[in-house]
Structure formats: C-alpha cells, structure tokens
Amino acid sequence: MASSRWLSTTSPIEGEDRFFLMNFAIAPDVSQAEQRQQRQRMARLAPKSLVARYWLAIMLHTGYGSSDDGGMRDTQHDSTQARLMLESAATKVPDAAAALASFMYHGIGGKVDYKGARAYAMIAAEAGLPTAQTLLGTLLLRGLGGDEDVAEAERVLRQAVAQGFLLANTTLGHALAEQRNYSEAVELLEPVAESGDLDAQHRVGVMYASLKEYAKARRWLSQALQQTDDLLRQQLEQGSSHDTGSAAGASLQQQMEQVAQQEELEDMDDGMSEEELAALVERRSLIAHSLGLLLVRGQGGPKQPEDAVRLLAIAAKQGHGDAIFNLATSFVRGDDLPQDLAQARRLFELLADAGDAEAQFEYAKMLIRGDGGPVDLAQAHEYLELAAPTIADAQTLLRSHLFAQLAKHREHHHHQDSSTDSQ
Fold it and tell me: In angstroms, rounded to a whole number, what is the distance separating the alpha carbons of residues 262 and 271?
C-alpha cells in the first residue's frame, strides 16, 4: 500500500501523518483504545487527504474504532456517510473506487447502481486491483450496468486469477463450466475446492465425471457429500436443544426427517434459514445421486452396490428419480451397461417405495417373473394396486387370471381363519 496512489491529497501531508497513511491497515487485533485513536487521527486527516477519506469510510462502514460513549453509535456505523466519502475519493484512489463499486453493486449505503458499479470497478481494475477485476468480470458476464461482454469479462478475470485471487477462479470457473469448457473450468475451480468450498467440490466432481476421470470425480463428490453431512449434522446438533428425542440414535436422514416434522428448523441457533437448509438438503441429494451412479457402475473404483443404493435412495426421496429409473432400465436391457437384473430390481424397489408409479409397476413385473430375485405374487399385487390409479397396464394385470387365482386363494384363507376364530 506504499505506492504513489496512497499519496493522493488535497493539500500536502508530511512527517508522521504521511508515514501513518502510507502504512495504515485495518487491524482488528489492536486494542479498542488504539482503534479509536486511529479513527480520530483519520478523521482529522480526511479533509485534506483522499486516502484518509477512504480509510475513514471503511471505519464508518465496519465500525472499526467505534465507541458507545457520547451517543455516537448511530454515526459511527453510518454506511451512507461512508458511501459519500468513497465517492469523494474514488476518482483518485483506486481502492476507494473498488470499495465504492462494491457498495453500489450490493446497495450498501444507498440504492443498487450497476452502471455506477461498473464505472468505478473499471477504474480500480485498470489500476490492477483483483477485487475490482473480479467484480467487473461479474458485471460484464451478467450484462449488468451495460452490455454483456463475455470476452472482456474473461480477460479481466484472468488478470485477477493471475494474482491468486480465488474469488476470480470461482467466477471464471463457473462461467467456463456453463460453456462446457470443463478442462479449463476444473483447473480453475480445483484450488477453490481444495480451500473447502462446497459449490466448487460438487461442480469439480461432476465435471471430472463428464471428463471420464472417474477416480477424481469420486474423490471430490465424496468430499462434498461429507461436507454436506457435516453441515446438516451441525444443524441437527444445534436443534437438539429443541428435544429431537429419539433422533439421537437414528441415521442422518431419519434425524433430518424427524426434525423437519417438528417444524423446528427455523428455530435453530446457527443462523441458517429454512431456505438455506432446504437448499443444502437439495444439494446433498444431487451429490448423492452423482456419486451413487459412479458407485453402482463401478466407475473410478470398485462397484459398491450397498452404498450406491443408499445414496440413490437419498436422491429419489428428493425427487431425482428419473435418472435412477433410466439406470434400472439399462440394467434390465443390458444395452449401455452389462445386464444386472438383481441391481435393476433393487433400484426399482427403492423408487417404488419413494412413490414412483412407473417404478411400482416395473418392480411388480419383476416380482411376478422372478427377475433378479424370487417370485413374490403377494407383494407384486400390493405394488400393482399402488400403481393402478395412474398406470393402465397395472390395472389390466390386476384383472388377469394370475391375480384372480391369488384373490380366490386369499379369500379361501380368510374364510378358514374366520371359521377358526368362531370356534
């Protein structure tokens, strides 16, 4: 921060004040008393130093050096005043331009102003600030505050990436993934995934699967699934004070369902809203689906049918049954996968139990024929009855000679049981 841009002033500043401005940095670990002294000194310098105005604006916005004394609390956190100070310094101090662009983009201290954000981000981006380059790239990608310009967005984002700014990796990586440029997107997002970012871990895993690098896909999807489970478990532990009772010894999925039934998610103390929690549960199901497909196919490692079915069941319960149904059908036909009737039967069963009528019908047919397991006409009849309201062929099969005989057999046993009871 000792570059010439930090010397922008309205009148000369020399000596200790000049040294103070050139070397100042927000330091939350210093004492409150020292913070207050720094803030007072910055306020004294602000009338003649644009740099001091920038720092004072940051202090106003963040509350750095604030005090509860003298009824000053309202002005010490005044983001509106901070925005005005940034506007007075932004054309001369690139850091102020970058901060003002962010204020305008997020609507801090005033209205959202994408056009203004774009203009000030450009000033700071040209000065080489990676935060501004990343924000400008975002605005250009989305066409906010002006025309969409993907090529220019990628150019400025690459400048920020070259400076090691991971948020630029995230922005550019996701943009390239949308363009299906998976090779470069993975290269950009993998460092973000390594930092623990759940979005990046999930997307990198899916992209590696698309690139047929299945072992890497397994690794990242497994890490993403573990992180979602950890986050959900933390929420459940936060909610344990609300007496989730028997959930303590249940599976994570069962605990989630028990807590949800008690409608206490919104009362959890961690600050995660119901919408955020629902989004996390949905993400978990998507990750479970992708990882389950790898495990059931034996891609990137050995087949793990037990774990695969458990994961795919999570996805099915969240409404992601179509791909599982197609996978089961492939196992039946043996077209793009080796035929595996036992695996198909298990997949149809889990979808049938999740309420999928087509799966109920297919599973019933496998039970009738004994495909992938023993014949079980009684259970087939139960699933056909479930499917019959929406599947016409299920109704026809229920009326067939096979089930007419089963009905007579059941009625005969019912009369025998009744006679025994009467005696």
Answer: 18
Question: How far is 154 from 133, CA to CA, in rounded Å?
Answer: 10
Q: What share of the chain is helix, strand, coil (3-state, %, to 5)?
A: 75, 0, 25
Q: What are the C-alpha distances in Å from 215 to residues 181, 206, 224, 238, 302?
A: 20, 12, 14, 35, 10
Alpha carbon distance 410, 378 (integer Å): 9
pLDDT digit string, tens, across residues 189-243: 999 999 999 999 999 999 999 999 999 999 999 999 999 999 998 887 776 544 4
**What CA–CA distance (Å, rounded) separates 232 from 244?**
14
C-beta atoms surrounding 185 within 10 Å: 23
Residue pair 138/174 in contact by the 8 Å Cβ criterion:
no
Compute the distance between CA of residue 332 and CA of residue 239 in angstroms, rounded to an integer: 44
Closest CA to 79 of 111, 48, 52, 41: 111
Q: Which two tokens mark 27?
A: 């330091």
- Give the separation between CA 81 and CA 161, rounded to whole angstroms: 33
Cα dist. 290→38, 82, 203, 318 in Å?
A: 53, 46, 11, 13
| Cα–Cα distance for residue pair 74/58, rounded to 1 Å | 15
Radius of gyration of the chain measured on its C-alpha atoms: 31
Report the DSSP beta bridge partners of residue 9: 49
Condensed to tens digits (0 to 9), the pLDDT of residues 374-423 reads 999 889 999 999 999 999 999 888 888 666 666 555 554 444 444 444 44
Is pTM beyond 0.90 here? no
Taking the mean position of all CA atoms in its chain, how far away is CA 229? 13
